[in-house]
Amino acid sequence: MNDITLGMVLRILREFPGLSIVELSKELTISTTAINHLENDKCKPSAETLAKYSEFFDISSDDILFWLNRVKSADENEIKDILFSMLIKSAAKRQNLK
């Protein structure tokens, strides 16, 4: 078991759809170095950066922070399952809005 970090959540969000750091960098207009630092917990995202992640992945920053704060420890597969379910719910909401 690992302590869940925000960097871990951001990395899993990026990896889930198969994005490279370079691809995400272009989408979010954030440097690859900044993404690397965020994913390795060398820095914390600004509110603006967290909003960019939230908008791009169509998942609320509240949901990201909720799981980060509520689930104190889990293995990486459990974290991926949690984020997968959040992304599925987000996709379902988008489908209902169409």
How would you characterize this protein structure?
The chain has 98 residues and is mostly helical. The chain has a single domain (2-97), classed as lambda repressor-like DNA-binding domains (434 Repressor (Amino-terminal Domain), Orthogonal Bundle). The protein is 70% helix and 4% strand. The protein is built from 6 helices and 2 strands. A two-stranded antiparallel ribbon has the order 1-2. It starts with a strand and ends with a helix.
CATH structural fold name = 434 Repressor (Amino-terminal Domain)
* Helical run tally: 6
> How would you describe the shape?
globular
In whole angstroms, the N-to-C terminal distance is 40 Å
As a percent range, the share of strand residues is under 5%
In short:
With 98 residues, the protein is mainly alpha-helical. 70% of the residues lie in helices and 4% in strands. The protein has helices at 6-15, 21-28, 32-39, 47-57, 61-70, 76-97, and strands spanning 2-3, 73-74.
Main traits of this protein?
98 residues; 434 Repressor (Amino-terminal Domain); two-stranded antiparallel sheet; 2 strands; 4% strand; globular
Draw up the topology in text.
Elements: E1 2-3, H1 6-15, H2 21-28, H3 32-39, H4 47-57, H5 61-70, E2 73-74, H6 76-97
Antiparallel strand pairs: 1-2
